[in-house]
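Example A, followed by Example B.
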Amino acid sequence: MKSNIALIGFMGTGKSAVGKAVAGKLGREFVEMDSLIEEMAGKPIPDIFEQDGEIAFRELEIEATKRVAQGSRQVIACGGGMVLNKINVDRLRETSRMVYLKASPRKILERTSADANDRPLLDVTNPAQRIRELLDFRKPFYERSADIIVNTSRLSTDKLADLIIHMLKEDEGFNL
């Protein structure tokens, strides 16, 4: 029986905020994959990308996913590109319900513009265009990985957490 809740989706869709809210309401541990990767690397993600490259980052992501997938009763905020590697998705699926949080490109730009310096993939001349390109490419990966899909563009964090918990209560294969 699966007992982890893995939140997947593009940056700025609310994985961290909603994940913390769901974990708080259910009394579960909240795991931020990006923080775990930074801890493993001993440096922030922008430095990993800049000094070691995206491939090195993705290798750390595989190792972090392996660690997290072994736990139980966690709410996991996955990195936005985690679904690009089937190994990660397969590992998480063994113990987790995959909840795809999605939002409009406009909402994502709005949410990520304040901390654009911490987002190496948006460190470009036209972040709006980059968001659309990345979303177009990643959308099939998110959809294929998802057990549940929730649009976060219009609901508050608290309402989203309640909605996700409600949807999981309906899921017979999930141990809430």
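Example B, a separate protein, is given below in the same form.
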Amino acid sequence: MNKFLLGLLATVLAATLAGCGDTGTKKEDSTPADTSSETSAVKDENKADKKEDENVEESELGKMTIVYKNKELNENAESGPMKLNVSAVQLANLEVAEDYKGMFDEKDKVTVITVQMKAENTIDETMSFYPDQATLTTDTGDQIDASLVLSDSVGGDFFGKVNKEGNAIFLVDTPAEEIGEISLNIDGSHDESFMNHGDKIKMTIPTK
């Protein structure tokens, strides 16, 4: 797969996480009540249409519909001197366009799980840590490794007190609507001599 197509895939699959839709989070409606039931009904219908449009992303890759999004997650974990923050998660159904089905094992549909994360080394010593190679499990029985070609480079060697951030992307078959919980399973950190400095991380995140 050439670099252009990889870039297209990664951009489309992760871009909606930074968008304006907030499926899965509550927002209070401060609009005053309208005395006309007919007018209110029209307004409610328009709001529903607008929300649906915000949660649908169409591109040459296909049609992606966001089912759940939480951009205020702020889950934290540590493995020795390495700190991990998961700030957002998104589940979306992708209806794959005909020309791109070969990239998804000829599947018509796939669920895209995007996890936004930041890893930080808190010491001067070089450490190795790979949250972008996490194994994801779901409460519906899925188990899948992060897609190395689609995910950002959030892991590897950390030369001193540095950090890396980006998106880890997972592709599963179960429809997003059926997934109520995901877990990230990440190997512990180690130094240049491959000596372990921290425990494995298991982070469980509700997605409903």
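On Example B: The two ends are 34 Å apart (CA to CA).
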